[in-house]
Amino acid sequence: MNKKLRLLISVGLLVSFGLTTIWSTVPDLFWIQLGFLAIGLLVAFVFYKLDFTIAMSLSTLIYVFSIFLLAITLFFGENVRGATRWLGVGPFAPQTSEIVKPLLILSYAGFLVNHQLTKLKNLLLYTIMAGIPIVLVKIQPDLGSALVLSALAGFMAIFGGLSVKKTVLIFFFLLLIIPLAPYLLKDYQLDRLESFINPYHDPRGRGYNVIQSVIAIGSGGLFGKGVRLGTQSHLNFLPERHTDFIFASFAEEFGLLGISLTLIAYFSLLSLLINTVEKLKEPEHRLLGVGIIAIFLFQTVVNIGMNLGIMPVTGITLPLFSYGGSSLLSFMALLGMSARLLELTPAHQI
User: What is the number of other CB atoms lying within 10 angstroms of the CB of residue 343?
Assistant: First the structure.
């Protein structure tokens, strides 16, 4: 199958499933998400036409702009339920931690292609460079997005020349930080970790979200209950049914069959991106591909994992599925870059 057609089918399935679930659970938001999809197609086209050579030469400016967006959000952003993650711009309030994801991929790729991480100086510079946006997002506070940015920086470092020895040392250093979690995380974030370990210790409090999610998925059976017939979501037992736990809402209404099609679509998309990266000749193009894969893979695995109760609840959206304009626009930008990378593979391999 033609790679672009495969990309289109995979993305089309995921977006359609997401829109259907939003229409079913929160119909008032369906048209808003559809509007963001229309804008997202334009964003995808812009990033598809992006000249990567020029972007790499401007990587420092792109990075500075990304940090500027995150910084001004802390001072002038909208505070919603104790978190300052949205920057009000007229009727649209973008979540800047989502908007900077494709920008940081370009920034990191531009740095790594010109600075070998085998040198300690470059490794320290990259660590600082990656650490600043992570800290700014963590302060908002947005632990989920901070983890995504950490995964992005880590993946790109490993494939950007970080030696196995240094990778292992960094891994053990991170293990040593775990005992400091009570001092680094907020109370509600610690509650989420405790509920992950034993959700039934407090089934009506800390463990409520996970328990209801697992019930919703299990109740879907083989073929699901049908559109708008999910009891967990429509009777408001399932929290965040159109964002963090949209996978559970979908599973309840479409069952194991729907879950299987969704997983196949994600697998098809990710395997296509991995296959593309393997065939790219230029190191900067491979780094861009690795960054795109890192975000798609990490968010997909973590979101579905937390819906199944096998990972802590972190507030990470499901790519192309969850409601949210900023998230959708960010992933459409990544898809535009992906389509461009497909064209850069040797002609006989497309």
Answer: 12
Mean pLDDT over the full length of the chain: 88
The pLDDT-based confidence of 189 (bands split at 50, 70, 90) is low
- Tell me the C-alpha distance between 21 and 42, whole Å: 23
Q: pLDDT per residue over 279-300, tens digit each? A: 999 999 999 999 999 999 999 9
| Contact assessment for residue 224 and residue 257, using Cβ atoms and an 8 Å cutoff | yes
Average pLDDT value for residue range 61-90: 86
Return the C-alpha torsion angle 13, 19, 21, 22, nearest 10. 160
Residue 267 has pLDDT above 50, yes or no: yes
CA pair distance 207, 195, nearest whole angstrom: 5
Question: Rounded to a whole number, what is the distance in angstroms from the first to the last CA of the chain?
Answer: 9
Q: How many whole angstroms separate alpha carbon 172 and alpha carbon 166?
A: 10
Cβ(162)–Cβ(117) below 8 Å: yes
Q: Are 68 and 62 in contact (CB under 8 A)?
A: no
SS (H, E, C) the chain: CCHHHHHHHHHHHHHHHHHHHHHHHCHHHHHHHHHHHHHHHHHHHHHHCCCHHHHHHCHHHHHHHHHHHHHHHHHHCEEECCEEEECCECCECCEHHHHHHHHHHHHHHHHHCCCCCCCHHHHHHHHHHHHHHHHHHHHCCCHHHHHHHHHHHHHHHHHCCCCHHHHHHHHHHHHHHHHHHHHHCCHHHHHHHHHHHCHHHCCCCCCHHHHHHHHHHHHCCCCCCCCCCCHHHHCCCCCCCCCCCHHHHHHHHHHHHHHHHHHHHHHHHHHHHHHHHHHCCCHHHHHHHHHHHHHHHHHHHHHHHHHCCCCCCCCCCCCCCCCCHHHHHHHHHHHHHHHHHHHHCCHHHC
